Every structure is written in C-alpha cells, then in structure tokens.
Amino acid sequence: MRKILILPILLAVLSGCSSHKPRVALFLYNGEDLFMQSFADKIVAMAGMDIELSVFDAQNSQLLQNEHIENQIKEGCDLMLINPVDRLGAYSVIRRLKSENIPVIYFNREPLFKDLLLWEKTWYVGAKANQSGQMQAELVMELFGNDPGNLNRYDRNGDGRIQTVILKGEQGHQDAEIRTSEVVRSFRLMGFDLDILITEVANWDKDEAYEKMDDIIKTYGHDMELVLANNDAMALGAIRRMRQKGMFKDSNGNGRVDMDDDSWIPVLGIDGLEQAVQMIEEGYLYGTVINDSLSMARAMRDLSEAILNGRNIYDLPYRIEDNKYIWIDYQAFIKNH
Ligand code: GAL
User: Fold this and answer.
1) Which residues does residue 198 pair with via DSSP β-bridges, in sequence order?
2) Which of 72, 139, 179, 237 has the greatest number of beta carbons closer than 10 A?
C-alpha cells in the first residue's frame, strides 16, 4: 500500500520567507487508510503558498498523535486540522488547545458535541453518516425493483427477503455504527425484508475484508444475495475474494461483468474512491456513495483562511450548524446501465 506521508512533510515553504507565514498542522489518524490518503492529497493540494503546512501520520496511535500535537504547540502552530485516532480523546486535546489559544478544525472522525463546546475556536467538517446509509439502501431497493412485496430476479432464491452480508468499519466510529444501523433501518422503513446473514467488522481495511470474506463465502456463499460494505476499501477486498471464488462472470463477452449472470451478487461501498469507480465501470462493484472529500477539503481551506485572517466565519458560503458543524452532502453513484 502506498505510504503517502513522510513525517513531517513541510509544504508550501518559499525560500527565506517562511517565518511570517501562518503555520498549519494536519494530523491524520492513519496514512494507510485509502480514503484518508485521497482526502489528505486534496487538503495539501489546496493549501496554497501563503501558509506553511506540516502533515503528521499517527499510524493509528493516539499516543503518537498526542506527541505530534504537543510538538506542534511548541513549534508555534497557528491552526490545527485534526483527524483524531480516538474521537473520544478529543476532550483533553481541545482543553489543551484552548489553554494555548490554538484554533482547531476536526474532520472525518467526529468528536462529541459536548467536547466541541469546550473551546469556542473548535469546529467539525464532515458528512452525516445517516445520509450515506440511506443512500446505500436506496440504491439496493431500486436494484431489487423498488417493490418490497415483489422482489425481482436479484432475489435469487425467490423467498421475498434479501440475504445480506454486512462488512462494518471500525467499531465505535460514528460512520461505521450509523451507516450500519441506518442502512438496515431504511430497508425496514420501506417494508423490505433484509435477512442479515452476518455483520463482520473489517476496520475499513481492504485486506481485512479480503481475509474475512473467505470464511463468509464458505459459510454463506450459496445464500448470499447482497454485500453491503461500510466503505469502498472493504468492498474492494470483498470483490477480490469473490472473484477468486469465481463469483463474477462476463457471460455475454462484452468485456464487462454481467449482472444477468446467475452468480452475480451486488456489492456496494461508500466513499467514491478512484479504484471503486473503476470497479463500477468494470461491473464488479454495483455502486457507491460519494463521501465528498473534495468539498470537505475546500470547506476546511475556506474556514482556515477566515480563521487565520481574522475574518468573520459567518460570511463564508457555508451553513455553520450549532456554531460548530459544516456538513457536506453525500452523493449516490452507480453506472448508468
Ligand atoms: C470514513 C470513510 C472510511 C474511513 C474512515 C476513517 O468516513 O468512509 O473509508 O476512511 O472514514 O475515519
């Protein structure tokens, strides 16, 4: 897997004139995470030359992230962009930054509201996880014919229920918990009968999903009618294993996996990774829900600029909910068949 971050990477440094530029530090929970890699690339690309941006990879260790944050406080950082390892750990970080008068924008992993309230110069930029769960469910309902009492041919065994495998992200993460419960709730609300064969945690990770799918296919391969992954990376891992087991075919030889083939099972992800869009093109992945990191990165940049230049953040073209949150919408994505 690509290692994107050398610690620290110093960007946007113009020779001889860096000292007066505002210092911004970007802290990532884990540089191995595929979605965070592309998110970080966008933040870095938008940073511009009038700030000095340093990037730190916590490698999934809150202790390491705390050290990075402490070092940056000593270095005289003017603004922090934090993707926390442990979102509940934000409590002590926010109190610490308040004592140093350092503003902070959290993103992607959401601290508790009561913690955001600890320091007025604390915000969160993200997406509402329930929206992604609902959109993922809508894509599936449409695929199965939108009529819960009369499922179409994708109900392979014709029992009127959808036999489903769920691949869940990291336990306790707001996106993993809410996407899972919301996707299930949306089916039930619309009268669809979801038969959950298993919910397996694969921690957002492609390789872990690939490993776990081995046993899942052994046990449930014959019954499975749907694979719902909380993110694209896990969907890609699942597809890799499913391909190995001969589960996708191009029966009509058109160079694309054939949805009409009896062995075709819809797999859905969330994020809209480039590799996922490619898999949708090729017909392995049915759909995804775009987790719009480009718009989030833009909102973070605009908010950062306003904070650093002492401008009124309420003049920005974003709604700032509860004085704390900027929410960016998800978008459903499938290939037009
Ligand atoms: C989610 C994303 C996952 C993973 C996670 C990390 O929003 O869908 O792929 O990157 O954030 O916090």
Assistant:
1) 165
2) 179
